[in-house]
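pinging the channel bc i need a second pair of eyes. not urgent but kinda urgent?? the chain im working w is below, pasted from the shared doc
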Amino acid sequence: MRTALGYAAIGVVLATGLASARAQEAPPVHPALHDRFYFGVGAFMPKTSTSAELDSATLGAGTNINFEQALGMETTKTVPEAFLRYRLTDRWRFDGEYFALDRTGNRTLDQDVHWGDVVFPVNTQVQSKFNFQDIRISAGYSFFRTTDKEVGVGLGFHVTSYDASIGANGIGNEAKKVTAPLPVLSGYGQFALTDTWAIGARLDRFSMKYDQYEGSITSMGVDLMYQPVRHFGLGVAYRSLFIKLTATGSDLTGTFDQTFQGPLFFVNGSF
């Protein structure tokens, strides 16, 4: 009897130890990989390079202008950014992200500048504006998914808007606005390092010709997330965006070439 009880006790101890070992070996569960809603806001600090050309039906091809060097616009600026993710099912998800960058410049030209229907001679004091915004939306499917890992592909759009103008006293002002939806194919992945730390990455890429627009876009994001409490956390990320766009419509003919690269610091919530 005692022997039977002893063997039973040993069995309980071994079973308890095995269950404990399995629990310790279980993959980490991070809220960013499982909560239905995930959202955040932060400060994006991109270094920007902008060149643009605005042609004219009467004057022909315009001057290709570097807005930072030729027009005195700042190359770095801190702007707000917001993002969200909604999981429709365990494998299907919807992602969105938004930021806008508004800048102005004031400089004396060191060359003649032909911008649309206006020519600004060398040594003219000009005031310029270049406002940009990007809305990224994507629907994705995670073809590989475990408790602590997720890899998938997506299809979406970067809806980019430009509002650019150059003017000078006594000469005039030329302004143009354009909004272009640029479709992208996406690849993404998320990995839980622990139950509070996770890393994620995505890549958007496409080139296309649609209606009066022709262009290409490459966008990348890498996020390091720390969520010490159940529903709130913070993180640091890197964002880059490269856009080339040519418009050949009757009301607008020109090119835009922009790059944005820099860190993003954010706070997030999930539930």
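so The longest strand covers residues 125-145. and Residues 56 and 135 are 29 Å apart (CA to CA). — does that match what u expected or am i reading it wrong
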